[in-house]
Design brief:
436 residues; mainly alpha; 17 helices
Length: 436
């Protein structure tokens, strides 16, 4: 059955936590955009560290952040929602504070600051997705997650533009810390918490955590697409096509604008199809774009760079389809009482893919375009096939939201879906059998 969706902006804001939480997302993203692109430069230019030392410290922060994800998942499964989001912001405030207090040449303090920033950056996506999944459900949840991603990309893009470059890095760090602190206060004011004890007994005891082995393994390869505009394309344009770095900037800006503009409409458009099929389709689109990059680089000369920029639009569309379906599929598969741990496992695969993709891309690139793009295309197609072939648990009940603090049990007349405070932003008619 076709899905009919009518988006209302005010309702959509309610669906991912209300106006204050929406402002918190925007401020947090703005702060992230101010400093994150220049963190390595801060270590090198302000603290006089060597580039390898600063890079290792940043990688260590990402790794420790991933190690903390199981604990974050268990915390979420105990009912915490806005508290975990707030904590992910506050731990980054601590990281920025340590960054500002680090004397020149002190790599260990820089490493500690990067560690706290890494923990916050890894914990936030799972915490945000859990909060959204608590206040809305079904395709409405998918749209709200897409809107949150669009808002976050807009904020990060604006932050990067305001930063403007590597000058005045300490001022940017101060601005980042204030932004994180403001976002944390706003997120805390939402006071959203689920009550796992009120979940139906069937959901608490009879629904095991979905295995999702193929899905999680495929996700490691899928997330390479997020580093293609930032790492692979600048590397190819500058070292293989001898093109101006301006082309890299054009591609990055185009990617950001397209994600902000199209994330919600594309997610809504594809809501008529099962999420797993959409995710597999995203892999096909990404693989086609990688083969397109291979063909574009073969042009060389003056046509290569414009062709790469044109193909990057296809790659961005694949990224949009992937982002709109992956987290949505995970939240649809997860039993309510294991939502946090399931999202944490997904974030582990995402973080691992983001951590290894720069090393893989830079290792493949010197062997030529065929090796780089052919390997990425083959790996992504294989991942798409694995996603499509994996079977969802047939015995899993339809996932019900955990009731919020102070609400009635989920099976009562005053359930989450009927409360006016979190009224649906999206009117939808669809078959439940196609919800995943």
């Amino acid at each position: 059955m076709a899905t009919t969706l009518n988006i209302r902006s005010r309702g959509l804001i309610r669906a991912f936590g209300g106006p204050r939480y929406a402002v918190a997302l925007a401020v947090d993203a703005l702060g992230t955009g101010l400093l994150r692109p220049f963190l390595l430069l801060y270590g090198v230019m302000v603290l006089s560290l060597s580039a390898p030392a600063a890079g290792i410290a940043m990688t260590g922060g990402v790794v420790v952040g991933l190690v903390c994800m199981p604990a974050v998942g268990r915390w979420l499964d105990r009912g915490a929602r806005s508290t975990v989001v707030t904590a992910s912001m506050l731990v980054r405030v601590l990281g920025v504070g340590l960054l500002l207090a680090t004397p020149s040449g002190h790599v260990w303090l820089f490493s500690t600051a990067a560690l706290f920033l890494g923990i916050g950056n890894q914990a936030w996506p799972a915490a945000h997705a859990a909060l959204v999944a608590t206040v809305t459900d079904g395709r409405e949840r998918d749209t709200a997650l897409a809107a949150g991603r669009s808002l976050r990309n807009a904020g990060m893009g604006a932050g990067a533009l305001l930063a403007g470059g590597a000058d005045a890095l300490q001022v940017l760090a101060v601005g980042t810390g204030l932004a994180y602190l403001t976002a944390a206060v706003l997120a805390w004011s939402v006071h959203l918490r689920a009550r796992p004890a009120a979940a139906p007994a069937q959901a608490r005891g009879d629904a095991p955590a979905p295995q999702m082995r193929a899905l999680l393994a495929a996700n490691v390869i899928y997330v390479f697409c997020l580093n293609v505009p930032e790492i692979a394309l600048p590397l190819v344009l500058v070292t293989q096509l001898q093109a101006s770095p301006v082309w890299s900037a054009v591609i990055f800006v185009t990617n950001t604008v397209l994600v902000v503009a199209l994330q919600v409409p594309v997610t809504v458009l594809l809501a008529r199809f099962p999420r797993r099929i959409v995710l597999a389709f995203a892999g096909v689109v990404l693989a086609v774009s990688y083969l397109g990059f291979l063909a574009a680089t073969a042009l060389g000369g003056g046509w290569g760079a414009p062709a790469v920029a044109a193909v990057s639009v296809v790659c961005t569309l694949g990224e949009i389809i992937y982002a709109g379906s992956s987290t949505a599929l995970i939240t649809a598969l997860a039993p309510a009482h294991l939502l946090g741990r399931t999202l944490a496992r997904f974030q582990l695969s995402t973080g691992f893919g983001l951590a290894v993709s720069p090393a893989v891309i830079t290792a493949l690139a010197p062997h030529g375009p065929a090796t780089l793009w052919g390997s990425l295309a083959a790996g992504t197609l294989l991942s798409a096939s694995a996603v499509a072939a994996e079977k969802d648990p047939e015995s899993a009940p339809v996932r019900r939201q955990l009731p919020l603090r102070g609400s009635a049990p989920a099976d009562s007349a005053d359930s989450i879906s009927s409360r006016s405070r979190f009224r649906s932003p999206v009117t939808m008619s669809a078959s439940r059998s196609k919800s995943a």
